[in-house]
Amino acid sequence: MSSPAIIQVTDLHKTYRVGEVDVPALRGVDLEVKAGEFLSIIGPSGSGKSTLFHIIGALTPPTSGQVRVADQDLAAMTDAERTRMRRRTVGFVFQKFNLLPNLTARDNIAVARYLGGSDANKPDPQFEGALSLLGVAQRLGHKPNALSGGEQQRIAIARAIVNRPAILLADEPTGNLDTENSRAVLEIMRGLNQRLGQTILMITHNPEAAAYGHRTVQMRDGKVVG
Questions:
Q1: CA distances from 116 to 99, 138, 160, 168 (A)
Q2: β-pairing, 90-93 with 72-73?
Q3: Count of domains observed in the chain
Q4: DSSP alpha helices (H): ranges in the chain?
Q5: Integer Cα distance of 160 and 208 in angstroms
Protein backbone atom coordinates (compact mmCIF):
# COMPACT_ATOMS: atom_id res chain seq x y z
CA MET A 1 0.00 0.00 0.00
CA SER A 2 1.39 3.39 -0.98
CA SER A 3 1.80 6.18 1.58
CA PRO A 4 -0.93 8.83 1.73
CA ALA A 5 -0.31 12.27 0.26
CA ILE A 6 0.91 14.70 2.90
CA ILE A 7 1.00 17.60 0.40
CA GLN A 8 -1.65 17.89 -2.30
CA VAL A 9 -1.57 20.83 -4.73
CA THR A 10 -4.34 21.16 -7.33
CA ASP A 11 -4.52 23.62 -10.25
CA LEU A 12 -2.48 26.20 -8.34
CA HIS A 13 -2.15 29.72 -9.74
CA LYS A 14 -0.33 32.74 -8.36
CA THR A 15 -0.28 36.15 -10.01
CA TYR A 16 1.59 39.18 -8.68
CA ARG A 17 0.59 42.74 -9.47
CA VAL A 18 3.62 44.80 -10.49
CA GLY A 19 2.58 48.36 -11.15
CA GLU A 20 -0.10 48.10 -13.83
CA VAL A 21 0.96 44.66 -14.97
CA ASP A 22 -0.13 41.18 -13.79
CA VAL A 23 2.84 38.82 -13.61
CA PRO A 24 1.93 35.11 -13.40
CA ALA A 25 4.30 33.11 -11.18
CA LEU A 26 2.36 29.81 -11.14
CA ARG A 27 0.17 28.64 -14.02
CA GLY A 28 -1.88 25.65 -12.92
CA VAL A 29 0.51 23.50 -10.85
CA ASP A 30 -0.52 20.01 -9.73
CA LEU A 31 1.75 18.25 -7.24
CA GLU A 32 1.54 15.41 -4.74
CA VAL A 33 4.09 14.52 -2.06
CA LYS A 34 3.76 11.26 -0.14
CA ALA A 35 4.43 10.97 3.57
CA GLY A 36 8.06 9.95 4.08
CA GLU A 37 9.12 11.08 0.60
CA PHE A 38 12.16 13.23 -0.19
CA LEU A 39 11.06 15.29 -3.19
CA SER A 40 13.31 17.70 -5.08
CA ILE A 41 11.85 20.53 -7.15
CA ILE A 42 14.33 21.87 -9.66
CA GLY A 43 14.15 24.77 -12.06
CA PRO A 44 15.89 27.99 -13.13
CA SER A 45 15.33 31.36 -11.50
CA GLY A 46 11.83 32.60 -12.31
CA SER A 47 10.41 29.11 -12.80
CA GLY A 48 7.99 29.52 -9.88
CA LYS A 49 9.56 26.99 -7.53
CA SER A 50 10.14 29.45 -4.67
CA THR A 51 6.57 30.80 -5.03
CA LEU A 52 5.30 27.23 -4.76
CA PHE A 53 7.49 26.73 -1.66
CA HIS A 54 6.03 29.83 0.02
CA ILE A 55 2.45 28.82 -0.73
CA ILE A 56 2.91 25.25 0.57
CA GLY A 57 4.54 26.69 3.68
CA ALA A 58 1.53 29.01 4.21
CA LEU A 59 3.79 32.05 3.90
CA THR A 60 1.80 33.55 1.01
CA PRO A 61 -1.70 32.83 -0.34
CA PRO A 62 -2.40 31.53 -3.86
CA THR A 63 -4.50 33.43 -6.36
CA SER A 64 -6.55 30.29 -7.04
CA GLY A 65 -6.34 26.52 -6.66
CA GLN A 66 -6.20 24.25 -3.63
CA VAL A 67 -3.39 23.34 -1.25
CA ARG A 68 -3.79 20.66 1.42
CA VAL A 69 -0.94 20.13 3.88
CA ALA A 70 -1.15 17.28 6.40
CA ASP A 71 -4.86 16.97 5.53
CA GLN A 72 -5.48 20.66 6.24
CA ASP A 73 -6.97 23.00 3.64
CA LEU A 74 -4.85 26.15 3.79
CA ALA A 75 -7.50 28.28 2.08
CA ALA A 76 -10.04 27.45 4.80
CA MET A 77 -7.76 28.61 7.61
CA THR A 78 -7.60 31.96 9.35
CA ASP A 79 -4.25 33.76 9.54
CA ALA A 80 -3.86 32.60 13.14
CA GLU A 81 -4.56 28.99 12.15
CA ARG A 82 -2.00 29.16 9.35
CA THR A 83 0.56 30.52 11.81
CA ARG A 84 -0.08 27.62 14.19
CA MET A 85 0.16 25.18 11.30
CA ARG A 86 3.54 26.59 10.28
CA ARG A 87 4.90 26.29 13.81
CA ARG A 88 3.67 22.75 14.44
CA THR A 89 3.50 21.03 11.06
CA VAL A 90 6.24 22.58 8.91
CA GLY A 91 9.94 23.15 9.49
CA PHE A 92 11.80 25.63 7.27
CA VAL A 93 15.41 25.68 6.08
CA PHE A 94 16.55 28.58 3.91
CA GLN A 95 19.63 29.49 1.89
CA LYS A 96 20.39 32.19 4.46
CA PHE A 97 20.68 30.49 7.82
CA ASN A 98 18.57 33.13 9.62
CA LEU A 99 20.07 32.37 13.04
CA LEU A 100 19.70 35.02 15.74
CA PRO A 101 23.26 36.39 16.01
CA ASN A 102 23.19 37.26 19.72
CA LEU A 103 22.02 33.80 20.82
CA THR A 104 23.97 30.58 21.08
CA ALA A 105 23.08 27.67 18.81
CA ARG A 106 21.32 26.01 21.75
CA ASP A 107 19.22 29.12 22.41
CA ASN A 108 18.35 29.48 18.72
CA ILE A 109 16.90 25.97 18.88
CA ALA A 110 15.19 26.69 22.21
CA VAL A 111 13.37 29.68 20.69
CA ALA A 112 11.90 27.41 18.03
CA ARG A 113 10.77 24.93 20.71
CA TYR A 114 9.11 27.73 22.63
CA LEU A 115 7.31 29.10 19.55
CA GLY A 116 6.13 25.60 18.74
CA GLY A 117 4.55 25.25 22.17
CA SER A 118 7.14 22.86 23.61
CA ASP A 119 9.01 23.13 26.89
CA ALA A 120 12.50 24.17 25.82
CA ASN A 121 13.98 22.70 29.03
CA LYS A 122 12.31 19.30 28.79
CA PRO A 123 14.62 16.53 27.54
CA ASP A 124 13.67 15.02 24.19
CA PRO A 125 15.58 11.77 23.50
CA GLN A 126 14.48 11.64 19.86
CA PHE A 127 15.73 15.16 19.22
CA GLU A 128 19.00 14.42 21.03
CA GLY A 129 19.45 11.54 18.58
CA ALA A 130 18.81 13.93 15.70
CA LEU A 131 21.48 16.30 17.06
CA SER A 132 23.91 13.41 17.01
CA LEU A 133 23.01 12.72 13.39
CA LEU A 134 23.54 16.40 12.58
CA GLY A 135 26.96 16.36 14.24
CA VAL A 136 26.49 19.62 16.15
CA ALA A 137 26.06 18.44 19.74
CA GLN A 138 29.48 19.85 20.67
CA ARG A 139 28.81 23.24 19.08
CA LEU A 140 25.59 24.23 20.84
CA GLY A 141 27.29 26.73 23.16
CA HIS A 142 28.66 28.80 20.29
CA LYS A 143 27.10 31.86 18.68
CA PRO A 144 26.63 31.89 14.89
CA ASN A 145 29.72 34.02 14.21
CA ALA A 146 31.86 31.30 15.78
CA LEU A 147 30.41 28.61 13.51
CA SER A 148 31.29 27.72 9.93
CA GLY A 149 28.67 28.03 7.21
CA GLY A 150 28.12 24.28 7.25
CA GLU A 151 27.70 24.27 11.04
CA GLN A 152 25.24 27.18 10.87
CA GLN A 153 23.13 25.32 8.33
CA ARG A 154 23.16 22.20 10.52
CA ILE A 155 21.93 24.28 13.45
CA ALA A 156 19.25 25.75 11.18
CA ILE A 157 18.15 22.21 10.30
CA ALA A 158 18.12 21.27 13.99
CA ARG A 159 15.95 24.30 14.70
CA ALA A 160 13.62 23.32 11.85
CA ILE A 161 13.04 19.77 13.12
CA VAL A 162 13.05 20.38 16.90
CA ASN A 163 9.24 20.32 17.06
CA ARG A 164 9.08 17.15 14.96
CA PRO A 165 7.27 18.74 12.02
CA ALA A 166 5.46 16.48 9.60
CA ILE A 167 7.19 18.26 6.71
CA LEU A 168 10.61 19.85 6.24
CA LEU A 169 10.68 22.52 3.52
CA ALA A 170 14.15 23.47 2.31
CA ASP A 171 14.72 26.38 -0.10
CA GLU A 172 18.19 26.20 -1.71
CA PRO A 173 19.67 24.83 1.56
CA THR A 174 23.17 24.55 0.05
CA GLY A 175 23.13 27.87 -1.84
CA ASN A 176 25.59 29.56 0.55
CA LEU A 177 27.87 26.54 1.06
CA ASP A 178 30.98 25.23 -0.65
CA THR A 179 30.99 21.82 -2.32
CA GLU A 180 32.18 19.87 0.73
CA ASN A 181 29.68 21.43 3.12
CA SER A 182 26.90 21.15 0.53
CA ARG A 183 27.41 17.41 0.29
CA ALA A 184 27.54 17.08 4.08
CA VAL A 185 24.25 18.96 4.53
CA LEU A 186 22.56 16.94 1.77
CA GLU A 187 23.76 13.69 3.33
CA ILE A 188 22.29 14.87 6.65
CA MET A 189 18.95 15.58 5.01
CA ARG A 190 19.01 12.18 3.36
CA GLY A 191 19.77 10.64 6.76
CA LEU A 192 16.84 12.46 8.37
CA ASN A 193 14.60 11.08 5.67
CA GLN A 194 15.91 7.51 5.77
CA ARG A 195 16.42 7.09 9.52
CA LEU A 196 13.62 9.24 10.93
CA GLY A 197 11.12 9.08 8.05
CA GLN A 198 11.14 12.87 7.72
CA THR A 199 9.13 14.10 4.72
CA ILE A 200 11.28 16.62 2.83
CA LEU A 201 10.46 18.97 -0.04
CA MET A 202 13.60 20.69 -1.32
CA ILE A 203 13.78 23.55 -3.81
CA THR A 204 17.03 23.77 -5.79
CA HIS A 205 18.51 24.83 -9.10
CA ASN A 206 21.34 22.30 -8.75
CA PRO A 207 20.86 18.88 -10.42
CA GLU A 208 23.47 17.28 -8.13
CA ALA A 209 21.55 18.42 -5.06
CA ALA A 210 18.22 17.35 -6.57
CA ALA A 211 19.60 13.83 -7.06
CA TYR A 212 19.57 13.29 -3.27
CA GLY A 213 15.77 13.08 -3.37
CA HIS A 214 13.67 10.04 -4.20
CA ARG A 215 12.06 11.92 -7.05
CA THR A 216 12.64 15.14 -8.96
CA VAL A 217 9.98 17.48 -10.33
CA GLN A 218 11.07 20.03 -12.92
CA MET A 219 9.48 23.48 -13.18
CA ARG A 220 9.70 26.11 -15.88
CA ASP A 221 7.63 29.26 -16.51
CA GLY A 222 5.29 28.55 -13.59
CA LYS A 223 4.45 25.01 -14.63
CA VAL A 224 5.53 21.47 -13.83
CA VAL A 225 7.20 20.23 -17.02
CA GLY A 226 8.64 16.89 -15.94
A1: 17, 24, 10, 14
A2: unpaired
A3: 1
A4: 49-56, 79-89, 105-115, 125-134, 149-161, 179-196, 207-210
A5: 23
Angle in degrees, CA 186, 192, 195, rounded to 5: 130
What range defines the domain where residue 202 resides? 35-60+78-224
On whether the CB atoms of residues 74 and 67 are closer than 8 A, the answer is yes
Quick: pLDDT tens for 123-135. Answer: 666 667 677 778 8
Residue 86 is assigned to a structural domain of this protein: yes
First to last CA, the chain: 25
As a whole number, mean pLDDT of residues 13-41 equals 94
Q: In Å, how far are 34, 65, 73, 90, 94 from 26, measured between CA atoms?
A: 22, 10, 19, 22, 21
pLDDT of residue 1: 47
- Phi-psi region for residue 196, left (φ > 0), alpha (ψ -120 to 50) or beta? alpha
pTM to 2 decimal places: 0.90
User: Does residue 9 lie in a domain region?
Assistant: no
67, 6 Cβ separation under 8 angstroms? no
